[in-house]
Amino acid sequence: MKQKSKSVLIVTAILAAAAVNEVSAASVNAVVRDERNNFVKEAVVIATPAAGLSTSEQELDMKIIDQVDKEFRPVVSVFQAGTSVEFPNHDDIRHHVYSFSEAKTFEIPLYKGTPAQPIVFDQAGEVTLGCNIHDWMSAYVLVTDTPYFAKTDGDGRVDLAGLPPGEYTVEVWHYEQAAPSEQSAVTVNLTQNETPALEFKIERKKKWVPFRAPTQSQDSY
Amino acid sequence: MIFPKTTCCFGILLLSLLLPAAAHSEWAEWKFKPGAEYRHENNLNFSAFGNDKESDNIFNPYVGGGRFYQLGDRTRLRLTADLDVHVYDSWDQLNSWSISGSAALSHKFGVGLTAPWLRPFLTIGYKDVRADIRSGRFIHTGIIFGKRFTPRFDIAANLEYRDRNGKNGVQIVPGIGPDVFDQNRFSISLYGNFLLSEHWLLSASLGHFDGDFDSACTPENVAIVLATEDVKAITLDSVFGGCVYRLDGKGNNARADISFSATRHSSLNFGVAYQKGKGDVQDYKNTILRASFIYSY
Fold first, then answer.
1. Which residues in chain B touch residue A107, judged by CB atoms under 8 angstroms apart?
2. ipTM of the assembly?
3. Of the CATH numbers 3.40.50.300, 2.60.40.420, 2.60.40.10, 3.30.1330.20, which one belongs to the domain with range A26-201?
4. How far is CA A178 from CA A130, A201, B46, in A?
């Protein structure tokens, strides 16, 4: 009986703590536009706490970047450093995935299906992916140290929730962003009672991909 | 009647495409490429004499298909079979169909967008023309070297040898054979592609050839032709009503195309090409305007 009471008390305490955490979480709304005032979809809004990041041993979920109809899906991904990523190939042909980016340089030589070992993205930074067979295949990955990030929707908007109250640097990243600017990062003090609405503006520089459609000539690999 | 050796080659090629035992199926990528082109040529008979030039519009549907065999990480073998049909608005004696088989081995020297690549190729085919002396087998072989510099810009250089066999016509000039359509030539071409926007691609090429080409003559100008050119072969021509002759000359061609990516698998293409041949004395010029739709899976 004493043991059962003790268990009930422990469970109650855990639930109470969770409820307190939920109530004390902060959030921020953001909208991202480009220099022409167009909404930018698939921009990544990242919140980095000023107090620093805890070195918790939280297990990170496996992520997936798929290959379908000779295209990477999704085109834009964001992971926390230390995330393992699988690259399943759902085409009935082989692909050869590679990256020369400093944050993660790797090759998965010609394969079909899903490689046995995922790729661990262990360093923060930008990673550009390609396929050595199909020149037009490109995907862009942002690897962050912070666990607080989200992508904008088709209207350039995102709601970044579940942030512990405190001071944050909130910034935006997009794979076509020309360079960081004053309008792409801001410092905010988040409390549980307010949801600041942030507006970001980025200057875009188009990322070109080779022409995929067939042409008259046979002059391509 | 199809040249027997050509039939044998086609048979082997088609079987190799179809038999799963011919290659590991997990390595193969199928390719299917139908298309249709409509073009206008202003000097179809490649005449050296302005008032004898004949023009026409040509409808050219085609279909090709084959398989890629990935032999290694950076090496792939492409085996394809193609069927090509030409239908002329006015000069229907030039209507033709052709069937060919191609093998091309592509190798990429490295990993990444800018790694250069090399592709030797061989095409063997048979062309059947309504004007029968133009019918016969053909062989194209060569090597293409290409490199992409940026996602928007790439170039390729092509060194090619073409050989065709026609049928002998009637000998009309003593000492000069009637095998006008037995021709061969070497050519070298340089191609460039530049992406104008996400959906528009500009392509251009310059080429030079050295070897045989044919031109039409008439009873009025044949004497000038025989007097001024080193005619290698000459015979009667049922197409343009006079004669047709073969020269061993040189020539240049220039071409520009613009392609619109209709979908990821299809495009609309518009282009212009200029061909110039030079014999000993005469110049031979042809301008081609073309529009096409291509699908590729």
1. 111
2. 0.81
3. 2.60.40.420
4. 20, 11, 53
